[in-house]
Specification:
69 residues; 6 strands; single chain
Length: 69
């Protein structure tokens, strides 16, 4: 369930968590704005994605990096 939206000078920010189930594999934390989002499964390592102007799709800056265990 998304928390109430926060507003800054740059726009709207949404912060929420997604439960990954069947089988339960944890919670995914998401912080999202109009131009990008950050996703983390542990709150320490974050994947930052930016919305591209050209395709309108999400793209990751650090998708090839391995997450530390």
């Amino acid at each position: 369930m998304p928390c109430p939206n926060l507003y800054l000078e740059t726009g709207e920010i949404q912060a929420y968590a997604i439960r990954r189930v069947n089988p339960f594999i944890g919670v995914l934390q998401v912080i999202e704005t109009e131009g990008g989002r950050a996703i983390s499964s542990n709150g320490v390592v974050w994947e930052i994605e930016l919305r591209t102007e050209r395709s309108g799709m999400w793209g990751s800056l650090n998708k090839q990096t391995k997450e530390a265990v």
